[in-house]
Sequence to fold (267 residues):
Amino acid sequence: MQIFQLEKVHTLAFMGGAYGNLAALDAAIADAYLQGCEALVFLGDATGCCGHSEETLTRIREHFDVIIAGNHEQEVAAGSDHCGCGYSDPEDERLGCLAHQYAMRTVTGEQRLWLARLPESALLSVAGQRWLICHGSPEQINEFLYESELDDHRLDDWLQQYGCQGLACTHTGLPWVRKLTSGVALNCGVTGKPDHDGDPAVHYAVVEIRDGHANVVIRRVEYDYESWACQLEQEGVDPVFVEPLRSGWWTTGVSSLPQWEREQRRR
Fold:
């Protein structure tokens, strides 16, 4: 497994799930720099329902020190019409594939070749710690690690297996932080859409490592979602993908959520 050396870094940002939402990604990157982040790590799924794939991939290559593939990157590289999201509900998967097919229109040939070379997971050597990074889980790129279904023993086993003190993932779209016997695990959320709670803001994670201790903060980032939604409408993006940017409530992926995630977000 590839190891990235970030030994002089103490504060880093984990982001994922941009889905072509360039406006939100730019806001998150700017916020990370304001928080004093010395390195930015992208955990996959740059492309998606908002289109703007070429611009989004360019931005990520410009600003992120470490980049790994998500299911979207792998399917784009393969030239597939399938998103590889792994939703349990067929309609959720169909809409995920529709978003992926839209995103494919603006990916260049050079970018596809670059995406094919991205690792599926990696290790970070940072501030005296080792962190395991993946998109879904260390075992499956599109596995949904939902907070209500987390198995602490399984998370601890992964940390021990790779000799790590931290694990970072994304994919579900819903951020969480879990303290473990062996260290800490987190889902950074996504920068491409809200986290299904009626708030249009997006999220990412900031980790500060000092004296062998990692402090994790999930950052909430506001951006001009109304102007961005209007632009996407003018570009012909399906309303099913634009509506959540304004409302903060998902129109896709909900049927695949565990019951706790559906109810908790509505409280």
